[in-house]
Amino acid sequence: MGSCISQVEVNDPPVKVVDLTVGDDSTKKDISNNNSLNSVVDGDNTNKSFFGISSRNVSQQDNNRNKFVLYSDFTCPYCYLEFIRLTRAMKMLPEEERLDICHGPFQLDDTLPIEGVDKYKFLSTIIPPSALDPMIQILCEQFEELDMEMNPRGLLGNSAPAHRLQIWAESNIPREQAIKLKDQLFRIHSCQGKSMGDVDAILKAAAKAGLKDEAMIRSILDDKKNERKLKKAKKHAKETLGIQTVPYLLYIDGKGKQRKLEEATAIETVDGFADLIDICCRKS
Can you give the pTM of this predicted structure? Predict the structure, then answer.
């Protein structure tokens, strides 16, 4: 059973939080920039297609683009931090030079109930309070320094519904809007202290990302196809990629060559991720 607060060991150095305002409220009809999971839709199990390199929904120009796949769980604040840093770093580039940042779903604990459990009590069964309390305090201070507030208590719930919505979004809405949705979904756990299975919280997050049709969002959450896609994606992450914990950042060049960016977990600044993006592009 994995910890839903961090992928790092208790003795690892703390990380810093970088604030982010992601995307805008505009909604476009052009959905050619699809995600890393289109192969799940098409039933293609090859790695190349799995990460959006070859898909019927992607133009040839997009097929040849370099991209990142960030495997993460919405219950993991450290995943949120890496997402923020990477996305903010990408925003520093001219729009025409930005790479796609695709969603890789992973659940640290898929046995959590939808309604959630007491976050602190659950984590204290995994991490001794003598180590857990300082970790939480550091995270809270980092959020406060950047005018954000991390909720150290609240509920810890099953993240499957949020992952199902994000998987759908990556294939059906513009890239920037999908990024904004992911940001809003991350906030449910880390900032609001609500269960990731809280449908009302998910609906509000979707609305803030410009997806205001509640009936549509509910149907997406209930769609068995999206449930199957999540199951296949998680199996690919664990069995093919060997992912055991997150965040896990993967870089894929235009030829489909994949590289795990192990150094990403040690990067604590937006500028550091900007340098990483530059190195990846120069090596491609």
Answer: 0.80
